[in-house]
Design brief:
The complex is a heterodimer of chains A (441) and B (240).
Chain A (H helix, E strand, L loop, with lengths): L1 H18 L7 H9 L6 H5 E9 L4 H14 L4 E3 L7 H11 L8 E7 L5 H7 L4 E4 L7 H4 L2 H12 L5 E6 L3 H4 L7 E8 L24 E7 L2 E5 L12 E7 L4 E5 L2 E5 L5 H15 L7 H4 L11 E4 L3 E6 L3 H13 L4 E6 L26 E7 L3 H9 L7 E2 L3 H10 L4 E6 L1 H13 L5
Parallel strand pairs in A: 1-3, 1-4, 2-3, 4-5, 5-6, 6-9, 13-17, 14-15, 14-17, 15-16
Antiparallel strand pairs in A: 7-8, 9-10, 10-11, 12-13
Chain B lengths: L1 E7 L10 H12 L4 E7 L13 E4 L4 H13 L1 H9 L3 E5 L1 H5 L3 E3 L4 E3 L7 E16 L7 E12 L7 E5 L9 E2 L1 E3 L2 E4 L10 H15 L12 H14 L2
Parallel strand pairs in B: 1-2, 1-3, 3-4, 4-12, 5-7
Antiparallel strand pairs in B: 5-6, 7-8, 7-9, 9-10, 11-12
Classes of the chains: A alpha/beta (441), B alpha/beta (240).
Chain lengths: 441, 240
């Protein structure tokens, strides 16, 4: 009965939230959990073929939503926390919104992205069959302390689920370490050739997670990802189960997974990791992937994933949350050779991480190439990001607290395209501004 | 004029944008027509020779990386101690700050420090994390930054960097942050501390220049409007 009350309360709050124009992606679940703390346990019995969870610093929303979309394309009913609300309350919200008014739930799969810090709590309730870990980068340091702490949290979570199958990024030494935990079966994916120029950008996990010595690389993708080995203890990139080769970063991107040719209309090298993670997880859970590329055609990216708004010229919105994400976004902007205006918005609310010192770990200076027309800074921490550019000897054309002004001014310039790079809490307000100004997706 | 900045073990201690501090010192010299050279002394570089150093910087790292650095630094203890006692300019942040003390006591082990400052650190229960505002007595205005440390540092009779007007500080209780000793500035305010605190940066540069050039007349002012706005924004947002 408590469960039913909790479901009704949650559903009522969702409807009430919609009436006042809220997303309601986690608060209904928050209140429903107070009435019925083990609400999400229902997933263990009502999901017929299995629960797949995705965590990791970057790419979890994209990976999780791609997975749900691909499984739906195969005709399955899938429960998915699409909006990226990835703490226990977000998962509870997803569950109760999918239930009928009698509290019944039916699905073939559940695809859930989970915040790393919440995995031990969530795994007290739900027992996934497959867990994907995309990567571990420095992110929201003030919340987690340090990357080692995050690793320990994930290990505690893994220990709570018997016979867990792990789908791990084999190019990331910090992910590969989870494959050595007890009672897990690891599978690895990776990009098995040199693709990008071999630069020396922020390598954050360069030290062997096993013995602490500095790792070496045969080739290197970005951050700490690549064909790594430890010269001291022998820890190295494992044998890869899902191999990406033959990468061409044009539009569309082309590459092979285990020899199967893919042509996919996404921007950004990092998206190859998201795609091969989905491919890997589907295979591990027993789904056929012969038609993988066509399964992805129905997928709509969540807002802010290099999402294009149509004005008199395109305005492309990109969300990045940490140094690795921003460096990848900047690399993607640089592959666009059109004359461009760039707007960068930095906030420091709780969901962004209160600490903005990471701005100095991003190679922001690379944004100033020969195709840059104007540079605008904005957001709560507009002065911090502006100082970052000042000390890189890069001229900021406009500092403003007003995103609408920033976009409006850029629409008037002689550029061909506008890029808006934002961190987390600046995303939804920027989306609202772009819609209000008449941009169509 | 020419200033040589030694960045110690940037390959290990590079948490939280430490390079912002190095860049800030370098640029504020260059903008004044003073040559600046940054030397990265990494794990592979062997013995440390500070005979031509004007500024030494030690940053922060995770506990694991800090332990590796500590062993390396202990081998060079004499060199660093002599440099400091000889009025060498040293900037130590976070882990680097803790390492200058006698020891850092963790729950399960004690890391021996360089014993350059008469201070010690003990691991506390929760991490002290957040924006922080200080009132220093040796430069004008406020020092602003961000702290994130598990250790509580007890500074004994040392002079602090500043009085805490918002945030936790050295040990959460006594209301002071950091240490200033001779030409050493040691602090928990991590990462890009100096860009938002141009007066502190210039204080450090002045100390180094005075030691090297006895006829040094002082730094020419720079246009610090943006730095002051960034500093003032944090002060106004947090100081009550």
């Amino acid at each position: 009965m408590r469960k039913l009350l909790a479901v009704w309360l949650g559903k009522a709050l969702t409807i009430a939230g919609k009436l006042i124009g809220k997303k309601s992606s986690s608060s209904p679940g928050h209140y429903a959990l107070k009435l019925c703390p083990d609400l999400v346990k229902v997933l263990n019995t009502c999901v017929k073929k299995g629960i797949i969870v995705t965590c990791g610093t970057n790419g979890k929303t994209t990976t999780n939503n791609l997975m749900a979309s691909a499984l739906e394309a195969k005709g399955y009913k899938v429960i998915c926390n699409k909006l990226g609300a990835n703490m226990l309350s977000g998962i509870a919200t997803t569950v109760l919104q999918q239930m009928n008014i009698f509290g019944k739930l039916e699905a073939d799969y559940a695809c859930l992205e989970i915040d790393e810090a919440y995995t031990p709590i969530v795994f007290d309730y739900i027992k996934p069959k497959v867990m994907v870990i995309t990567n571990l980068f420095r992110d929201q340091l003030d919340r987690y302390g340090e990357i080692d702490i995050t690793s320990d949290i994930i290990k505690r979570a893994i220990a709570k689920v018997p016979n867990l199958k792990l789908v791990l990024n084999g190019d990331d030494p910090l992910c590969v370490q989870f494959g050595m935990e007890k009672n897990v079966t690891p599978y690895y994916y990776g990009i098995s050739e040199k693709v990008l120029p071999q630069t020396d950008d922020t390598k954050e996990g360069r030290f062997c997670p096993v013995c602490g010595e500095e790792q070496k690389y045969n080739y290197y993708h970005y951050s700490q990802l690549g064909d790594f080995y430890c010269p001291s203890c022998g820890f190295k990139r494992p044998d890869i189960d899902f191999n990406v080769t033959g990468v061409s970063l044009g539009s569309p991107m082309k590459f092979n997974i285990n020899g199967q040719r893919m042509e996919i209309n996404y921007k950004g090298f990092y998206n190859i990791y998201n795609l091969v993670a989905v491919y890997g997880a589907m295979n591990v859970i027993g789904e056929n992937t012969d038609d993988f590329a066509s399964l992805l055609t129905g997928y709509k990216p969540q807002i802010g994933r290099m999402q294009e708004y149509k004005f008199n010229k395109p305005v492309i919105l990109s969300l990045s949350k940490n140094p690795a994400g921003f460096n990848q976004a900047i690399a993607t902007v640089n592959t666009d050779k059109r004359k461009k205006d760039v707007i960068i918005a930095i906030n420091d609310k709780a969901n962004d991480g209160r600490d903005v010192s990471w701005l100095w770990d991003v190679d922001f200076d690379k944004i100033a190439d020969e195709n840059l027309n104007t540079l605008t800074t904005t957001g709560i921490r507009v002065y911090d990001i502006s100082l970052r550019f000042k000390y890189a000897d890069i001229n900021v054309d406009r500092m403003t607290h007003d995103m609408a002004e920033a976009v409006t001014e850029c629409l008037k310039t002689g550029s061909e395209v506008v890029y808006v790079l934002v961190n987390y809490t600046a995303l939804y307000s920027t989306e609202a501004v772009l819609k209000k100004l008449g941009g169509e997706v | 004029m020419r200033i040589k900045i030694y960045h110690l073990y940037p390959d290990l201690l590079n948490l939280y944008g430490d390079r912002g501090n190095i860049e800030c010192m370098r640029k504020r010299l260059i903008w004044r027509g003073i040559d600046a050279e940054v030397i990265m002394h990494t794990c592979d570089d062997g013995k440390l020779d500070l005979s031509d150093a004007d500024i030494v910087f030690i940053g922060g790292g995770s506990d694991r990386e800090q332990k590796i650095v500590c062993d390396k630094l202990l081998e060079q203890r004499k060199e660093i101690k002599e440099y400091v006692e000889n009025n060498g300019t040293l900037v130590a942040v976070c882990g680097g700050y803790q390492l200058l003390g006698k020891y850092y006591k963790l729950h399960d082990e004690t890391i021996e420090g360089l014993d350059i400052l008469d201070i010690f650190t003990e691991q506390g229960k929760k991490r002290l994390i957040g924006n922080i505002v200080l009132e220093p007595d040796f430069i004008e205005g406020n020092i602003v930054g961000f702290e994130n440390h598990g250790g509580r540092t007890y500074i004994g009779n040392h002079k602090p960097l500043g009085k805490v007007v918002y945030g936790y500080g050295n040990d959460e209780k006594t209301g002071y942050e950091g240490v200033v000793y001779k030409n050493v500035v040691a602090t928990y305010l991590h990462g890009p501390l100096l860009p938002k605190n141009p007066k502190l940066c210039d204080y450090i540069l002045t100390n180094a220049l005075k030691r090297k050039y006895t006829d040094f007349k002082g730094l020419t002012p720079l246009g610090d409007e943006l730095e002051e706005i960034a500093n003032g924004y944090i002060v106004n947002r947090f100081k009550k």
